[in-house]
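Sanity check

After download, print the first record. It should look like this:
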Amino acid sequence: MNKKNWRVFQELFRLRFHGLTVFRFDFFAPFFVDGSLFAIQLLAFGAVYANVDRIGSWGRGEMILYIGTFSLLNAVNMTIYFFGINSIPYKVRSGELDLYLSKPVSPLFRLTFENISPGAVPLILMSVCIIVYGIASLQMTLTLVIAAAYIFWLVLMEILYYEMEVLIRSVSLYVVSMARMEQIEEAGLDLCMKLPGIALYGVYKVIFYLILPYGIMATLPVQSMIGELNLQRTLYGIGVVVLFTAFTCIIWKNGLKHYNSASS
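Expected C-alpha cells:
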C-alpha cells in the first residue's frame, strides 16, 4: 500500500506541476502574491510588537521565533495540502466526490496531494530565515538535540494542523453550509498567529489548547527550543495529536458513510 500511494503521489505531483507550467502566469503569480502577503504580515507583526518588550515570560527573541514557527507551519500547509483539503466542501456539494470514491486509492490521500502549490515554497524559505533570526536574537547555541526536538514538534504540529483542516471540512459531509465553521477556523488561526499560547488563560486556554488547539501549534516547538517544555507539556502535546488523529479518522469515515451522492 505504501508503494502504491507513493506512485500515486508521484503521478499527482507530475500532473499538478505540468498543469501549472502550461500557463507561465499561473505558475509564477503565486510566488509574487504569497511573497507580498508574507511581507504584509511581517509589517503587521512589526507594528504590533514594536513597543512591546515582553509577552508573559517571552521577550522579543522568543516572539520572533514564534512568528517564524507559525509562519513555517502555515507555509508547509499552503504548499502541500491546503488547496486540496479546502476543496472538500465544494466536491461534496457538487457530487464530484463520487469520482474519488470510485478510484482504487484513498480519497483523502488524493485530495491531500492533488493540488500541491509550488508558489508557496518561498514562504517556507522566508519563515526559515525568521527562525534563524530569532535564534540569533536569543544568542542561543543550537545543538543537535535541540534542533531534533524542534523538528520533531514541527512535524507533530503540522500533523495536528492537517487534522484540524480535515476535521473542519469533514463537517460538510453532515451539513449543508460550512460558512460558520470556516469563519471560526479563520478567527482562531488569526488570533493564535499573533498571540502565543503562553499568553492565554482561563476559558481562552481551554478553547485554544484543547477544543481548537491552534494555541499549541507554534508554542510547543518554541518551548522545546528554549527549554521551557517539561514532561507534562510534552505528554499533553502528544496526547492532543493522538486524540485529534483518532477523532478525525472517525468523523471522516463516518461522514463518507453518510455521504449521499449529488447525482443520486
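If your output differs, re-run the checksum step. Summary of this record's structure: The CA atoms of residues 31 and 122 lie 7 Å apart.
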